[in-house]
Specification:
Elements (H helix, E strand, L loop, with lengths): L7 H8 L4 E2 L2 H6 L13 E3 L4 H14 L3 E4 L16 E4 L6 E5 L4 E4 L5 H8 L4 E2 L12 H7 L6 H4 L6 E7 L5 E5 L11 H5 L8 E8 L1 E2 L3 E9 L2 H13 L6 E6 H11 L9 E9 L1 H17 L2 E6 L3 H12 L1 H5 L5 E5 L8 H14 L3 E7 L4 E8 L4 H20 L18 H20 L34
Parallel strand pairs: 2-4, 3-4
Antiparallel strand pairs: 1-2, 5-6, 6-10, 7-11, 8-9, 8-10, 12-14, 12-15, 13-14, 13-17, 16-18, 17-18
Helix pairs in contact: 1-3, 8-10, 13-14
Length: 480
């Protein structure tokens, strides 16, 4: 579709001049996200109400310009990145917690509420909102809902969609839709709430959310275990879950990750270990010592080299420090990385990581694996020099083979980051033509002019670091 330029004066008429950005320097700041992909919008608007969002989308349909919803810009797949032109719709002015209902254990919030700040607000009520993406200290509830964010606690508590009861959403045409309920049960009609959660800003703009809350856990126990064998570490993961212990975090770091973090911080991590497991259980204090001992026993049965248990909040923070240091440590190695969040059944993790090691050797790449072993979600980071075209090409070929491997292992191409731009050339491998056509039919039904967040999911280009097709022959119609 040939989109038109945004009529800036009319946008100003809706949201007010102080809430519109037009200078090139400021527009540039809203043209990229954590994927490092970039685009330049015509202007940026900061609506202050559902009505203003609705009026902007009505204007976009009338004048035929594209609209790109944006939260904090912390996404990893380019879902908030505009193509050249269009209107970026930043929702951080809609940042109120409208209601906390401790008796019914729900909250009503606007999309610009920062996730970590919201969680802290719940603590005095003895309540808990479990989703914990790595970006929770600055990412927003609206962005988390749009991408169905996960995090370490997903192994026990699930992901964002499990805590969204209802939504207020402005549809691409400007109409305002209310979905879901304020109750734990509700089966009237199609589940539009679940359809919209994880739709990456392509089906509507979230302006309010009704969130399910749960009682805050009383206490936690944290353990760090090192293994000489990757298989032994993954066997421990499976045995822990098989023995009816469901940790709130079960994180894995492979040998490459251990060495990168140790080079960065000199924490005394065992460089010779093939894997580290960071394991945390939570719940009533009276049962946690027994659960921690059961975990230690399982790890010993699987030939753990060493296992340490935190005895204080300070020791817990120290054990988590290695895991939290992974991303900063990676930033010191290369100027860029391709960060994939592939997910496989837990028992297939050793095959996945050994397959990744073979790819790293064959393509002469450094590939670092870490992540949420409890649910099979392994973050695969291919480190690249952005100024080395040959290395970028080798990395892109490795990604193609990685995705084939993941699907052959019964996995999925994304556990929590989503599709956006970077995975769009590959999703038909997983969904099939029928799945893609059905999703496109839903998109067209709600957004007949393709106004809202075009160029995402359904367009097989702009992957990796270039704003053009990166792998010859990848057309988006290739099948497994």
């Amino acid at each position: 579709m040939n989109y038109k330029r945004v009529p800036v004066s009319e946008v100003i008429g809706i949201v007010g001049e102080p809430h519109v950005v037009t200078s090139r320097e400021e527009r540039y700041c809203y043209g990229y996200d954590a994927s490092k992909l970039k685009g330049m919008p015509d202007c940026v608007a900061f609506p202050g109400s559902t009505r203003e969002v609705s009026q902007l989308l009505e204007l976009a349909n009338r004048e035929l310009f594209a609209v790109y919803p944006r939260g904090a810009g912390s996404g990893m797949v380019g879902a908030a990145v505009p193509e050249d032109g269009g209107l970026v719709l930043v929702l951080n002015r809609l940042n109120r917690v409208l209601e906390i209902d401790p008796d019914n254990m729900i909250a009503v919030v606007e999309p610009g509420v920062v996730t970590g700040a919201f969680q802290k607000m719940l603590a005095p009520h003895g309540l808990f909102y479990p989703p914990d993406p790595a970006s929770l200290q600055f990412s927003t509830i609206g962005g988390n809902i749009a991408m169905c964010s996960g995090g370490p606690r997903a192994v026990k508590y699930g992901v964002t969609r499990d805590y969204v009861l209802g939504l207020e959403v402005v549809l691409p045409t400007g109409r305002v839709l209310h979905t879901g309920t304020r109750t734990m049960k509700g089966v009237v009609g199609y589940d539009l709430t679940r359809l919209l959660v994880g739709s990456e800003g392509t089906l509507g703009v979230i302006t309010q959310a009704v969130l399910r809350l749960i009682p805050a856990p009383e206490s936690v126990r944290t353990l760090l275990a090192s293994f000489a064998s990757l298989e032994d570490s993954v066997r421990s993961v499976c045995d822990i879950v098989r023995n009816r212990v469901i940790p709130c975090a079960l994180e894995l770091m492979d040998q490459a990750t251990i060495q990168v973090v140790e080079n960065h911080l000199s924490l005394g991590l065992p460089r010779e270990a093939e894997a580290l497991l960071l394991i945390e259980v939570d719940g009533p204090d009276s049962i946690l010592d027994a659960e921690a001992e059961k975990i230690r026993s399982i790890c010993r049965q699987n030939r753990v080299s060493d296992i340490e248990t935190a005895r204080s909040p300070a020791e817990r923070d120290r054990l988590w420090r290695a895991r939290r240091a992974v991303s900063p440590a990676l930033g010191r190695i290369k100027s860029g990385k391709i960060n994939e969040d592939v997910t496989v059944p837990r028992t297939q993790i050793p095959l996945l990581i050994r397959g990744i090691r073979e790819l790293a050797a064959r393509y002469d790449l450094l590939i670092v694996c870490f992540g949420h072993a409890g649910d099979g979600n392994i973050h695969t980071n291919i480190m690249v020099d952005r100024k080395d075209p040959d290395e970028l090409l080798r990395a892109e070929k490795a990604v193609r083979e990685l995705f084939r491997m993941v699907l052959d292992l019964g996995g999925t191409l994304s556990g929590e980051h989503g599709v956006g731009i970077t995975k769009s050339p590959f999703i038909e491998w997983e969904l099939g033509r029928e799945g893609m056509e059905t999703m496109w039919a839903v998109k067209k039904a709600l957004d007949p002019l393709n106004i809202l967040n075009p160029g995402k999911m359904f367009v097989p280009n702009r992957a990796f670091f270039a704003c053009e097709p990166s792998i010859p022959g990848t057309s988006g119609t290739e099948r497994r």
